[in-house]
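Task: fold both queries, return tokens.
Query 1:
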Amino acid sequence: MRHPVALLASLLLLGGVLSPALAGADEPAVLVGPVPATTSGAADPRDLLAEARALLRGEPVPGAPAQRRTSGGHADRELTLVLRDLRLALPRLGAADRREATALLARPTDGRADPLEQGYTAKSVRTCGGRFCVHRVRTGDDRATAAWATTTVQVMNRVWRSQVGSLGYRAPLSDAPLARSRNGGNGKFDVYLKDLGAQGLYGYCAAEFALEREPRRAGGYCVLDNDFSRDEFGRDPADTLAVTAAHEFFHAVQFGYDVLEDRWFMESTATWMEERFADDVDDNRQYLRASQLAAPGTPLDLFNRQGSEHYGNWTWWEHLSARYGNRLVRSVWDSARGPRHSTVALERVLAGRGGFPARYAAFAAANLTPARSYEEGAAWPTPRLRASWRMAAGAERTDTVRLDHLTSASYLAQPDVTLGGGWRLRLDIDGPSRGAAPAAWLVVRTADDEWRSREVELDRRGRGSVTVGFSPATVRAVSLTVANASTRTRCGVDDVRWACEGRPRDDDKAFDVRAELVQR
């Protein structure tokens, strides 16, 4: 997936900000140039075209299971990255398909040029304020009131102050250099209101142009529903607008960092951003059962276009920001700019904070007790244990678990009530070698309800052991979490499920775990 920036620039992978010297006033500002297959978003770009067509028509996606309507935010029918991938795939489409794809990528103000009639069919008006212009029509299915346009302007400016002002992210690229007929009339960020609810959509943002000298940095526009009515979306319109605006605008921010960045990273951080802006709405809880809270055996960097894992794993960023502050996530985005992909950026940022493997194992262990580990965790699901052991005198338990990259398994040991004093619990781990980044984390809950946790050191061969006091009078439970924290990947093999569109190198690694009681 990652190619040298100089090569991208020389190929004009994402084009540049168009000027009269480069294009006529009627030429759309599109991302142009030969796009390597590893950045296409699908093995066949026609699949992307079919998916975008279906989403914009409100139809089932070909070859995908039925997608459910959700109560707010962005839902399973996420369009932003489909359009991003379609934009990147334009050069690999035939002439007729390219014309249709370009029409799908057009702004609503381009009118009837869109064969799927996504453009406005009436003259639009705009309401501008602060950093934004909101465009609407007064008639037809897409009609929106002046009051709702004003509300949208106000909410979008609050989102800007939160993400760009308070959290310090780069502002999205301005479209001011584009021809006025293409940039919404000025350099402010454009938001278009349309009746998206009928298609099962809440909103989306589209990458549209890029900087000639920094071709990974792209800008564009957003489209949001024209009223977010309670009847259609199932909750207060203001709440639905808030989480949708926060999520989708952060995609526009991301495009200004690196429009080619990993999909799981883009979606999980955008869902985490909802919590920063609209903490009391809690729409993102609907994805937790697809996250590593409930499914620790599903890799953290999975992007599943027909699922919700990449949304649900916003909890990873919640774990990090609770410990190191909200700006740590921005540090990862800063590190990931350019050819460095998401998991490598994570390793760099966490290198001075105990290292990525230890931090990932601590996250997996924290998920065993979400009510204690997260501010709102009492309402969250808990993961499945690999095994739960009741340990009596002479007991010994063994297990072998095979873990894919960025997954974990946890064991719980409790002293039997018949167990007297003078016993200790010994835990032995035999995992893969250090190159595959094995990690282990221990948590002890005492009889006095104190919690003690620490990393279990593993040697170069992936082996380690730990011994703790263990009797009903002193200990309630001991948990051991083993993790495959490997980020090693053969990048660019066009598998869009994983970071850097790569093939993980350290899947299906065996961890042998042994628990036994020993006398002091």
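Query 1 returned. Query 2:
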Amino acid sequence: MELTKNPPIGIVLQKGDGNSVRGILSQDAEVNMGQLLVIQDNDRISLGRIESFEYINNFFSEDSELIRPLTESAEIYDLLSSSTVTRANLFIIRRYSHNSTPKPGSLIRMLPEIRDEDLPEFYGIPGLCGYIKYGRLAGSSIPLLLDLNSITMHAGIFGETGSGKSYNMRYLLYNLSNIKIGEKEDALPIILIDANGDYSDFTYTNSDMLRGRKWIKRYVLRDPLLPNDQRLTIDLSLFSPRDLAEFITSLKYGQTGGNALQSNFLEYVLSLHDQKEFNFLLGTTTGLENLKQEVSEVSSNKELGFNYSTSRSVQSALEIFKNKVVNKLSLVSPNASLTENTLELMWRSRGLATIDFSADASPGIDVTTKQLIVSYVSRITYNYLTRTKYSGSQRFIVFIIEEAQNYIPSNDYPVNANLTKDVLVTLATQGRKFGLSLILVSQRPAFIDKYVLSMLNTFFFHRIYHEDVRYVMSASGGLPESLSHALTSLETGYVIVNGLMSSMKSPVLVRIPWDSRLGSYAGSVERVERVLTTD
């Protein structure tokens, strides 16, 4: 591996404290905060990350009496250009076969091109097996290697609208669908909660991009229109009477969480039945009518403490449940379309199952019903992975949840998520033991429960809102000050990667390569004037 092929772009001026050095870079060197540079101290080679930089000029400063006449001169730009350099502070993140800090006079170079066979030496890993190439280190053509063996330690992808977050998720999905193992293309099975239909093309027009997969399905809540569409149905016997009672009453009262007395009443009635009966009781018109009659009869028993008014409210909630979930969505079935058997098929076929919550695929679905579905998927996935693990057969599944704040909200986010929060906390804390990788995607990480956020061990940070920076730093264990300041101004298409999956083992700035088949960095937006003139 030859890291000193490129010509020098600067020199080290002085050592700082610990692992830091200060250098001067040529005016022609285009650099970014967080970018990596090669530092050569005779035969000792190090990698340094740019922590900060500023442009300086010997003849132009705030204190100079020359400022006014210079700025009035037409030749000011030529003068500044000819004498401006970049002063940069670099932090040493890797040393190659030495332990020293570069001395003043050491040469600074851009990262060179590196052959695939030299990547293990560059990253200090035994080989490429078990790693995937991800993007390019900023200012270079060198891919960042992500360690697949660390994916079960969970990850988060965060960025504001237009930062490239969704494009990055599509790019990561592509990489996890084309894993090179020897001469074979393989993939990790993935369940994806698709909030806005951003991945439906992978089921059809771009399915050929996912070469390692032999099974791809899109689950929808309407009549299937295309061959790989499947109407989603779920099995309510996985839920406790308490879970279903809270869900049904919250459908009536919205995200306030429902009425406690009515939830207790319905929980009592449901607890009189075996959970295997729930699909009939709550999934059929006959069962619901029988259940409403039973609610009425229970209210007449004064010893139980329930009254007629509460009974009528519970019956009203059951009617709303029937209209929204049973009649409109046909969601409940004892023969669910997504089961543990489906997950076994996914494993053997390295499948991709997207659950499409977009208006096209699931018209009229509300947040509460989405939570019921996410809770169901979480339960069958956890049950499947624990069962196979204890039977001696290891399985791996990646579970990606977009708009994660709707399912694991922080105290600052006005969503009641009792149905999903506990089970997702279990997945975050216990799932890794059984082969589950949880990947949370959100525009607002500050609206995600901090405890769950702390369970994530790899972070992909795009540009985020100012209000989120302190929260993210607290929950994730922090970034260097230079990169934390850069979080609010990252260019679209760039991402800071930090955590166990990164082979650099230090935060790095990565550029995601453009591929038209993956869409646009910032999403496809129709031009307003074109719509106005054609409508």
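Both queries returned. Flag for query 2: The chain has a mean pLDDT of 89.
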